[in-house]
Amino acid sequence: MSLGYAEKLSYIEDVGEVGMREFFDLPDVLQEKIEKLAMTIKESKHLVVFTGAGISTSCGIPDFRGPKGIWTLQREGRPLPQASLPFHRAVPSMTHMALVELERAGILKFVISQNVDGLHLRSGIPREKLAELHGNSFMETCPSCGAEYFRDFEVESIGLKETSRHCSDANCGAKLRDTVLDWEDALPSKEMSCAEKHCRVADVVLCLGTSLQITPACNLPLKCLRGGGEIVIVNLQKTPKDKKASLVIRGFVDKVIAGAMNLLNMQVPPFVRIDYVQIILTKALSADEKYVNWMLRLSSVHGQKAPLPFIKSVEITFLDEEKYKAAVLHEQPFQLKRRTERTKVFEMVLKINLSNGCGCLCSQINIPFDPKVTTDCSTPDKDAVLQKLRDTAIQGLCCGQNAIIEKKIKSAPNGETSTFAIVTNIIMHNKASKAFEIEAISNRDNIKRRKRSARSNGSSRKRSKTKGSN
């Protein structure tokens, strides 16, 4: 029996209540829709992307309204999903990185996000082209001067409350606040203003992984309709805006976007995460001037009291003939105090053991020690150093590389602060589009085989029936 129109458009995975059900387009229909999406993106003049929790589920971050979403499980009294990795180590998905490539190509003009995971910024979307309507768990802002601070650790509060840190601007110094909204908080006017502006002039608003149910954010895509724009929705669940959309795609966001990027002949760039650590070395002569009392400290670039979440422990050994006693630092603050002879010159080796969620186990940094006052404070080209680190990581498909990007000298007390950049993750996404292409071809072949089999079985049944009636 042939499929009806509705059955052909999609099949349903029956999970949970009706509002929580997930729908999937049949493979051949899905491929047709992806081809239409690719053409829509290619022809767009002002593409705006509106994202929800569905683009981050492949990053290990649960959604809210899906069958295994946080709100769904809470309502059903079931235990909440366990994170597969620490929140601060979540890495951008294939979709996040595809949006970066579309922005770099000048196709994507603006991103509006309801997510607080910070992955759009971490992926490389410029801050001025991003509106985070519900805030960012890794962002602090100064209510006085407006400065923003994007952290490598999760800010400890929500609800626009004061945090334990201050603005680093010497002319300001005000207490910082978190940026994540609580239920009663209004959407930030600055973010909303930019989002509305871009939606009004957009010819396409592409909604990815969002239920489009949280007001007033969910009404933003509708603003493009007044100017003749169109809405495209990619989501597994039905949304209240489906009837307003020119195209609704029921499929996993990563697979849909991978297929579109493949049709557009655009490669999804790799994600390289670089974290920073300050290594502070202070030195002072002993009272009898025979020894040097020194301290080595590993500190966050966000402040000496800020955590270093990507470092689990530090092993320190010494390259010298006298074999100074090695040390293992297990707890923050990571610091080591020692006394050595005044004339002794040596080198320390720091094995920085990285935390869970990092792409490699450790990174090694060599620190020379000279009791004399250091005068070399030459500053390297930070951008060039970071680009070289990224290129090396991508070429070698590995992380752990590090390089110094800044050095500061202090005379009182005698010391030096070196800032190191460390590659802690590298994720390649290019294979995603190829995998989707192979899967799509395989699915089309399977469909053709099933149709041939169905026709064959139908003919057999007809022949059998005819024979029996004779």
Automatic annotation (TrEMBL):
InterPro entries: DHS-like_NAD/FAD-binding_dom, NAD-dep_sirtuin_deacylases, Sirtuin, Ssirtuin_cat_dom. It holds the Pfam family SIR2. It catalyses: N(6)-acetyl-L-lysyl-[protein] + NAD(+) + H2O = 2''-O-acetyl-ADP-D-ribose + nicotinamide + L-lysyl-[protein]. It is found in: Nucleus. Residues 27-267 form the Deacetylase sirtuin-type domain. Residues 447-470 have a biased composition (Basic residues). Zn(2+) binds at residues 142, 145, 167, 172. Its cofactor is Zn(2+). GO terms for biological process: negative regulation of transcription by RNA polymerase II. The keyword Metal-binding applies. Residues 446-470 are annotated as: Disordered. Its main location: nucleus. One of its GO terms (molecular function) is transcription corepressor activity. The keyword NAD applies. CDD domains: SIRT7. Keywords: Metal-binding, NAD, Nucleus, Transferase, Zinc. It is an enzyme of class 2 (transferase). The active site is at 134 (proton acceptor). PANTHER family: NAD-DEPENDENT PROTEIN DEACYLASE SIRTUIN-5, MITOCHONDRIAL-RELATED, NAD-DEPENDENT PROTEIN DEACYLASE SIRTUIN-6. Belongs to the sirtuin family. Class IV subfamily. This is NAD-dependent protein deacetylase SRT1. It comes from Eucalyptus grandis (Flooded gum).
